Amino acid sequence: MAQKIIVTLQDDLDGSQADETIRFALEDVRYEIDLNSEHAKEMRDSLAPFIEAARKVQAARGPKPGRPAGQRQGPSPSDVREWAKSQGMKVNDYGRVPQALIDSYVAAN
């Protein structure tokens, strides 16, 4: 019996359907948020003056804090995407892989 799992993003502000995941960092803490297009535009517009005045810096290389070098936690996003596509599931080619999809991949493998 085949299964079809559909994963949808939910706007983290109001619970509506989200259109994208936005990643950002502030004071060495990285965040990501799922937003609909209206909220994403609001966020980008509100940050625009700060971004225009800021300097770009290169991301630090090396392991994330608290994680030993070379150790990965959980399956790779590319493995999950490849598996999901082979199962006929809709999955974005980039951005955060939803936890429900990762959980399905782990359960199947």
TrEMBL record:
Top-rank taxon: Bacteria
Pfam families on file: Lsr2, Lsr2_DNA-bd
Region (Disordered): 57-91
Keyword annotations: DNA-binding
Domain Lsr2 DNA-binding: 74-108
A single GO molecular function term of this UniProt record: acyltransferase activity
Start and end residues of each Lsr2 dimerization domain: 1-58
Signal peptide: none
Name this protein carries in UniProt: Lsr2 family protein
Species in which this protein is naturally found: Arthrobacter caoxuetaonis
Organism lineage string: Bacteria, Bacillati, Actinomycetota, Actinomycetes, Micrococcales
